[in-house]
Amino acid sequence: MVLLHILLAVYLAAINVYSFMLVRTLKKREETREADKKSGNAKLFIAGFLGGALAGYVALFALKYRTDNLLLMIVLPVLAALNVYLLVALFRSGVLVIG
Question: At 3, is the secondary structure helix, strand, or coil?
Answer without folding.
Answer: helix
